[in-house]
Amino acid sequence: MSDQFPKAIFDATDQLVFCASLDTTLIYANPAAVALLELPDNTTASLISKVRRDYSSAVKQAFHAAVASGTSRGELAFSDNSEKSVYLEGSLSSTQLGNKTAVVGIFNNITDRKRVEDVLTRQADICSRQAKP
Known about the structure:
Shape: elongated
Strand order of the largest sheet: 2-1-5-4-3
Number of strands: 5
Helix content: 25-40%
Low-confidence stretches: none
CATH architecture: 2-Layer Sandwich
Largest sheet: 5 strands, antiparallel
Number of helices: 4
Radius of gyration: 17 Å
Strand content: 25-35%
CATH superfamily: PAS domain
Distance between the termini: 69 Å
CATH class: Alpha Beta
């Protein structure tokens, strides 16, 4: 099996796949991640710079949890260049790249689901306020 085989799989999937150093500097991002998160072409960008501010401490904690226990699952929110929120759900896993620890993320885009949940929550709030005497 060639060394390019895994990269070809990551490049072909619609899941967002990235590898980052512990300080969240990107080492690799597949085309799905680059496109959805509107990441710069160079992979020296900081992943945390695209994370929504209210999620940044959770992302840092998830990175550290992945290193401490080997894996971490959760939900992240990013902002694209137009400041629209992009929601992801998936896992982070720690790995060794040479003599350095890195974090690999595999995530699904759940933005549409979050928008539907938000609409349903607002409708339920309206209904409950109208039902009160």
